[in-house]
Amino acid sequence: MSIFNLGSINIDHVYRVTALPGPGETVSDKGYASGLGGKGVNQSLAAAAAGARVLHIGATGADGRWIAERLRQAGIGTDHLAEIDGATGHAVVCVDDAGENQIVIHGGANRALTEAQIADALRTANEGDWFLAQNETNLVASGFAMARAAGLRKAYSAAPFDPEMTAQLVDNVDLLAVNQIEAAQLADHLGVAPECLPVPELLITMGAQGARYQAGGEVHQVAAFAVETMDTTGAGDTFLGAFLAARDQGEAPHAALRRAAAMAAIQVTRTGAADAIPTGAEVRAFLAEKDR
Q1: C-alpha 289: how far from chain center
Q2: Looking at the domain assignment, is residue 32 inside a domain?
């Protein structure tokens, strides 16, 4: 089986500052780092690290040509990665000494995907493969419609969260992944309880409290592993990528949740987003140690 990810790709530019600038103020940084990010690419890398066959549908500008090679090295298919005449999606992040931040996101190439690009990718899909999307690219609704017509299972990571957009899409997805705040907001928008959201499969991540998955009247929940947290950026993406890979490989829900929790636990002990995602071998070693 395969996971086709209509996924965002960002270059994160992170500046460390003593204090965040005020209106009209210019400040000097005291540290800079650049790394790979974006919800889509984080999820692709996590799913691939967990052993899934992943094909990424996305785009970069010329400034992101190095990203295709990075994805190939991770075993991710890049035949449907386009290059546009423009900038790769990116985030400019300022972080102060107290850990507070200011973030400006430029959608760039993530908003320049085409229906022809998606259709070309799905010609290679088989019935029962997964189609994954987030809210950081254009054509999410079109992508789900095309995936449905091709007989794929559809997973929706509804972030950055927009309750109205999500409400319009839930009827066309099989697995909805949200955090507990998003679940509550969507439930309020639809006038139902969070556990009654109208999707066949519901995955709710709850940070330090773990995660819950429900489908077919059954509910499975795992606690988060206790670790020393350094950076939670991308933790939810890592969890979903690992969980979807495990389910694609036929693992039972509780085992899939536990494997995803382990991958996310390792990821938050490191700095960065995509660069912090552990390997499958690291996850297996982590779980083996916990099972002793």
Answers
A1: 27
A2: no
